[in-house]
Amino acid sequence: MTPHERSGLGYAVAGFAILSMGDAVVKSMAGEWPPYAVAALRFSIGACGLSLLLLRQEGPRAFIPQKPWLQVARGLCLALASVCFFSAIYIMPLAEALAIGFLSPILTQAFAGLLLGEKVRPKVYLVSIVALAGVVIILRPNLALLGWGALLPLVSATFFALLMVSNRASAGQGSALSMQVFVAAFSIPILIAVCVAAKVSGVPELDFGWPSWDVVLRCAVVAVTATTAHWLAYVGTSRAGAAQVAPAIYVQLIVAVVLGWAFFDDVPDLYTGIGASLIIASGLYLWRDGLKASAPSINAGATQ
């Protein structure tokens, strides 16, 4: 690995670590403000900042999407994935929810074949079953304690995988910055609608009032850290390449374990260790297998 690639990997590691820090900040708001309201405020702040940056760099025309309904689908997937994940880390240890979330890259490959017609190697489906077994192992004790709420990170991973598929379908329809603005902006009306529905539902557990100043500040911190993390991951990928950077995503889990242990007294148990190992091993296997599958074509291209 060249020094340029090593620096890229460093950027990516820093980005993924910061993402877990933002998740810990979200978890700190459990019991103070509902997760759907946190998601709505977090993306509203993020969309405003990104929109100003997009306006400055690309002008007003960059705000016109080529396929609006595809952007609506992206916003819907992001909204549902975020609400489910925020709800999950409210009630579950951070490391457990995040470990199950790592199922999304594996599901993305499977969904790309089903929804986009991409060629999917049969082993992808086999490895997906192994990863799902890891999810079951993690969820087994939680289902008894939390009921159906324990499935929230699995639902989040599914919608996040669908978001990744819709991102692929959006390729070439705008810059990376405009794609970030679209997905955040189109998720906001959906999240606000969820908040209004919860507010008027008459269910005491879903009701909420105006946030305190420190909740607003923490939502802003989450928005800034997430944007910074995505920028660092982007820079890392551009320097070192996606293949070199991909395994760095699992730094998130290490940081999540440390933060959960230090601030929330969440000590990972044996079930979490075994299940997370299966999920991570599945993801790394598909990554390595993908490198091998692409190697002949890369080598062939280099000789022409």
Q: Ranges with pLDDT <50 over ≥5 residues?
A: 296-304
N-to-C series of helices and strands: HHHHHHHHHHHH
Helix share bin = over 70%
Largest beta-sheet characterization? none
Structural class based on helices, strands and sheet pairing: mainly alpha
* Number of beta strands: 0
Total individual domains: 1
* Alpha carbon gyration radius: 19 Å
Number of helices: 12
Shape: globular
Mean pLDDT, as a whole number? 86
Distance between the termini: 24 Å
Strand content: under 5%
Account of the protein in words:
- α1 (3-27) runs antiparallel to α9 and α4 packs parallel to α12 (270-303).
- 80% of the residues lie in helices and 0% in strands.
- It is globular and about 55 Å long.
- The model is unreliable at 296-304 (pLDDT under 50).
- 43% of the residues are buried.
- By secondary structure, the protein is mainly alpha-helical.
- The protein has helices at residues 3-27, 35-58, 68-91, 94-101, 104-116, 122-146, 152-169, 176-200, 213-240, 242-245, 251-264, 270-303.
Throw out a few tags for this protein.
single chain; 304 residues; mainly alpha; 0% strand
Would you kindly provide a brief summary of this structure?
The chain has helices at about 5-25, 35-60, 70-90, 95-100, 105-115, 120-145, 150-170, 175-200, 215-240, 240-245, 250-265, 270-304. With about 300 residues, it is mainly α. α1 runs parallel beside α11 (about 250-265) and α2 packs antiparallel against α8 (about 175-200).
